[in-house]
Design goal:
The chain has 1038 residues and is an alpha/beta fold. The protein has seven domains: 119 residues, Rossmann fold, CATH 3.40.50.10130; 36 residues, no CATH class; 110 residues, Alpha-Beta Plaits (2-Layer Sandwich); 86 residues, 2-Layer Sandwich (Alpha-Beta Plaits); 182 residues, no CATH class; 137 residues, Arc Repressor Mutant, subunit A (Orthogonal Bundle); 61 residues. It contains 37 helices and 23 strands. The chain has a six-stranded mixed beta sheet, with helices on both faces. Strand 14 and strand 15 form a beta hairpin. It is elongated. Its main location: mitochondrion. It is found in: Mitochondrion inner membrane; Nucleus.
Length: 1038
């Protein structure tokens, strides 16, 4: 055997376990029947048989035949065929017949395919040449490789030339120059090691010679023995050693510590001469330095943690720790201080394996065997009980018997299951157990079945502990066991029982179990957490503002002190007009103080009634409630306007956010609905996973109810406890113990019925249910006995003070003409201030607001640019209100309802109020008067009545509606008169009327109807005249 003993050589020689009768003929696949190549296979026999290749020319050699013309028609054919024989043959050959002219691109594609498929490609320019190749492969099947090896003569000069020309950039001319100028090989080596000048060769060749001779193990000065040693850097380092002091004839001593540390990854870190006996023949013969030294390697596991993947956060720290571990020689505590008598231990190098969490320690040992040194190290580690700083587990030591392969591939993660490949005869379970058991307990050993012909053959060894598997791989990989070399990798451990597979295959059982577990988890864990979150929202338990009140009070105190100091220094001559303005500002809120105090007093009472804060839009209802709750600690706001009309997911998410319902899992409703649809479509039965939005909202409101109730009951219990203590001590009048008052939670529902016709209006019903269930004060829900707070607009004087405070640069005289018609609506006053700040004069700002109001009234009230089906009033009804309110500040409700245009229907007026066009003033529990929705609307109504075209248009529409309604009445009366006339003309009427007076009653009724017809005719005539007049003003000609 050659000294390299490489892996391909082991693969090309089939093992004895696979030996079969020698094949004497080429086995031809039946798919090659009719191929002209068969006509040219004449020197060897062939026959059709079962084979995966096209031509099987040996036990482990398969040939695929391909024509370039066929390849262009079916380019995917060759990929399929190569995959079919990928694991069937050691040597795979593609014979390609070039039968096209432009073949360059096709050959490039096939070359790439063969490289990736580990296949040898042979080009044949005719089918006869292809047949000769098949014959040659078959005839040379069992021939030794000596026929193609380079022959070297036995004379000394030929051996010298072959040795020195093995170096790159050294040719035969340089070898002849060395031989003629220096002579013997030993002299060349000695002169180079002593750095003497070598004449007539290139400098780069001199360096190459020096590297060669400084790494050669033993070379005699007057003879050349086993000179064919690999000369490249890696192999030279692998063969490095020491030269004995007794070497003669000019041989120079080499440094004792000549080993080279392999810092690169993916390389075998052990010398092939250390543990592989088949490499001994490759060692050069001759005298050696320290022949009693033995080299060995020991593996320490659990030095570092396992590498878990690319994103492992411990990677950088482990790299840093490993460098310090080697630099500070912390490995020395793993080596015993003494060995058996007469033995000498010498450290060579330490190499960490960070991915598998261990350390290789290479050493030299003299005075005993390697096994003795390993046993001493193991006994020392076991007796001292050294543990890892990462997981506090024990560190173990094992002898490295193979040629470990250190790699850093990201997706090859260590596991407790090993994949053991056999390059040689198969190993039995007993042999594998004997080799692997020393590393830890084994769960199972599985060998590839003999029926499977895939190569290489393999076995699986599964350990109980992952550390045992990594130690076995690093110590046995590459070892030669009973003539078989083993290569070891990791396999992913597959559980014999997979819950996921079971759940997928048993949906009828797994889905109910999953739902039950989810419900139990929600009831046990999530519901208490949600109630706690809502209580925290009510009490502002984690509010930043609450904990900054003290700091704010201190800051306000400091500001007051600074202001007092500044006033004392002479700046106290503040403009008295500003102080007056401040006082007027405070007086501007006096109209709200009464309502705010009533609300604060109501909060302290038991929650037996509900509160409605009612008022026109923009009158400051929300601000009043917030101001009354400024010092109330337990409050919760629900804004209906942000919820109604929103999609299901947005509605649930926003409501959960407002009440601090956490965790909400609002997205799960969409997922469960989607899963329910999929299961229904696949199985035909509805799984019932999806939930409606009503169910989700009710779940949130139920948690709110529980949180509010628990909060109130806790306060009651605390108060009752204090009262019980007073009774027990008979000290009811002792004021040292204060009885805590119950602060009932307040729930504010803002924007209730703001979008009654919008999508999601069912939310209002659920909010109403919330008020019945919660033991708290609730505002804005009109269900139980109701206490109503109606907010009116501010007086013109208060409005003027408010605006003047915001615009102190303007005097009250210039503001009053704009403030008086604008009224005291807070929203309109703020809008006026904004426009004045933007650069408009008060008059221009008021005119702009007025015209915007007119546009708003025409758009909403007269149904311009809107869907008229949404409103319950018509244009004529709204125009009648415009006419009435432009003349009077307020109109009696009953007077307007009974007008012929409204016909006693109050629905139109109620909807106008909800849209903010008018305001209904209640008295004694019923509507009493009608006012404009805003004070500015009074001026807007007046401006609308000054528009002659609008007045004419609406006059025509009004006249038409009145005429139409009156004509309907006339038709009804005419029909009744016809019926009465027929009744009067009947024969029986005249006879009966003499005794009963029936004819007089009928006649009186007909006279009444005739008078009413006359009145109706007059009305219709007057309305026709008005319509004609309006048409004349508009110049409309029929």
């Amino acid at each position: 055997m050659s000294s390299s003993a490489d892996t391909p050589t082991a693969i090309q020689q089939p093992s004895s376990s696979l030996a079969k009768p020698r094949l004497r003929a080429v086995i031809v696949n039946t798919n090659q029947e009719g191929n002209p190549v068969l006509d040219y296979i004449k020197n060897v026999p062939w026959e059709y048989g079962e084979t995966d290749a096209d031509y099987q020319v040996g036990k482990t050699t398969g040939v695929i035949f391909l024509s370039l013309k066929y390849h262009r028609l079916y380019p995917e054919y060759i990929d399929t065929r190569l995959r079919q024989i990928e694991r069937k043959f050691y040597l795979r050959i593609l014979i390609c017949v070039v039968d096209v002219d432009d073949h360059q691109q096709s050959i490039k594609e096939l070359t790439r395919t063969c490289i990736f498929g580990k296949t040898t490609m042979i080009l044949a320019w005719s089918r006869q040449e292809a047949g000769r190749y098949i014959e040659t492969l078959k005839s040379y099947e069992n021939k030794p490789p000596d026929l193609i090896k380079k022959r070297v003569d036995d004379d000394y000069f030929s051996k010298l030339t072959e040795a020195v020309t093995a170096i790159k950039s050294v040719n035969k001319t340089d070898a002849m120059t060395l031989a003629s100028n220096i002579g013997m090989f030993g002299s060349v080596r000695a002169s180079l090691l002593n750095k003497r000048t070598v004449y007539s060769i290139q400098p780069i060749s001199t360096r190459s010679y020096y590297r060669l001779f400084s790494c050669t193990r033993a070379i005699q000065s007057d003879s050349l023995t086993a000179i064919a040693v690999p000369i490249h850097r890696k192999s030279a380092a692998a063969y490095s050693t020491n030269t004995t002091a007794e070497s003669t004839k000019g041989s120079a001593a080499i440094d004792n510590n000549s080993d080279v540390k392999h810092s690169h990854t993916g390389a075998a870190i052990d010398d092939p001469t250390e543990h592989d006996q088949d490499f001994i023949a490759a060692i050069p013969t001759g005298p050696m330095e320290n022949p009693n030294y033995h080299k060995g390697t020991v593996w320490f596991d659990n030095i570092f943690p396992f590498h878990l993947g690319l994103l492992d956060p411990r990677t950088y720290w482990v790299k840093y720790y490993s460098k310090r571990f080697i630099l500070h020689q912390r490995w020395s505590r793993l080596i015993p201080p003494w060995f058996p008598s007469g033995a000498e231990f010498q450290f060579r190098e330490a190499e960490p394996n960070l991915k598998e969490g261990g350390l290789y320690l290479k050493f030299k040992y003299k005075g005993g065997t390697i096994e003795e040194a390993i046993e001493a190290i193991q006994a020392h580690v076991h007796s001292t009980g050294i543990r890892s700083i990462f997981n506090f587990g024990r560190i173990n030591a094992f002898e490295v018997k193979g040629r470990p392969w250190v790699e850093d591939m990201v997706f090859r993660i260590p596991s407790r299951r090993l994949h053991v490949e056999f390059h040689g005869p198969d190993l039995s379970v007993e042999q594998l157990y004997r080799e692997f058991r020393s590393f830890g307990r084994i769960m199972d050993i599985t060998i590839q079945p003999s029926s499977i012909k895939d190569l290489p053959r393999f076995a699986s060894v599964e350990f109980v502990n992952k550390r045992s598997a990594t130690s076995a791989r690093n110590c046995i990989h590459g070892e030669l066991i009973d003539g078989t070399r083993v290569h070891i990798g990791y396999e992913k451990v597959k559980s014999s029982f997979s819950f996921w597979n079971w759940a997928i295959s048993n949906l009828r059982i797994s889905i109910p179990i999953l739902l039950a577990v989810t419900a139990a988890l929600s009831y046990i864990v999530f519901d208490p957490l949600r109630v706690f979150s809502i209580v925290s929202k009510l009490t502002d338990r984690f509010s930043f503002e609450k904990y900054t009140e003290t700091a704010g009070a201190m800051w306000n105190g400091a500001q007051s002190s600074i202001s007092a100091l500044i006033s004392a220094t002479g700046y106290s001559s503040m403009d008295r007009s500003k102080i007056k303005n401040v006082r007027s500002t405070n007086q501007g809120w006096d109209e709200r103080e009464t309502e705010a105090k009533r609300l604060e007093l109501h909060y302290k009472q038991a929650p037996e009634t509900l509160v409605i804060v009612h008022g026109p839009k923009g009158s400051g209802k929300s601000e009043l409630v917030r101001k009354s709750l400024e010092h109330h600690k337990k409050k919760l706001f629900i804004h209906c306007e942000d919820l109604v009309g929103q999609p299901e997911y947005v509605l649930i998410t926003r409501l959960a956010s407002q009440v601090n319902f956490f965790p909400s899992f609002g997205f799960m409703s969409q997922i469960t609905t989607f899963m329910d649809a999929i299961i229904t479509a696949t199985t035909g039965a509805k799984a019932g996973l999806g939930t409606t939005k009503e169910t989700e909202i009710r779940k949130i409101l139920d948690c709110v109810t529980k949180a509010v109730t628990d909060l109130t009951l806790d306060q009651r219990e605390a108060r009752q406890k204090v009262l019980d203590e007073l009774v027990d001590k008979n000290d009811e009048y002792n004021h040292s113990l204060s009885v805590p008052e119950i602060e009932y939670p307040v729930i504010v529902i803002d924007g209730f019925l703001g979008k009654e016709n919008a999508r999601g209006h069912f939310l209002y019903d659920m909010m109403a249910e919330l008020t019945f269930n919660c033991y708290s004060q609730t505002l804005v829900i009109p269900t139980k006995s109701v206490e109503t707070f109606i907010l009116n607009d501010a007086t013109p004087e208060t409005a003027l003070a408010y605006v003047h405070r915001r615009l102190p640069e303007l005097d009250t005289k210039s503001l009053w003409p704009s403030i008086e018609p604008l009224g005291g609506r807070l929203h309109d006053l703020d809008l006026l201030i904004q426009k004045i700040h933007a650069g408009l004069t008060p008059t221009d700002a008021f005119d702009d607001i007025l015209h915007r109001s007119v546009t708003e009234l025409r758009k909403i009230g007269l149904n311009e640019e809107a869907d008229k089906s949404k409103h319950e009033w018509n244009d004529v009804q709204f125009w009648k209100i415009v006419q009435m309110l432009s003349k009077f500040d307020e109109v009696p409700f009953d007077h307007l309802v009974m007008h012929p245009i409204f016909k006693g229907d109050t629905q139109a007026l109620s909807q106008m109020e909800r849209n903010g066009l008018i305001t209904l003033i209640h008295s004694h529990g019923r509507p009493y008067t009608i006012r404009p929705g805003k004070p500015i609307y009074r001026s807007a109504f007046t401006l609308m009545t000054q528009d002659t075209r609008l007045v004419s248009t609406m006059g025509i529409l009004t006249a038409k509606q009145l005429i139409s309604d009156e004509e309907k009445k006339v038709r009804v009366m005419e029909e009744e008169m016809c019926q009465l006339g027929l009744l009067q003309a009947h024969d029986g009427i005249s006879t009966a009327s003499f005794w009963t007076g029936g004819s007089n009653h009928i006649q009186s009724r007909m006279d009444y109807l005739a008078s009413k017809l006359g009145d109706s005719a007059k009305k219709i005539s007057n309305w026709n005249n008005e319509e004609a007049r309006y048409r004349k003003e508009l110049k409309l000609i029929e």
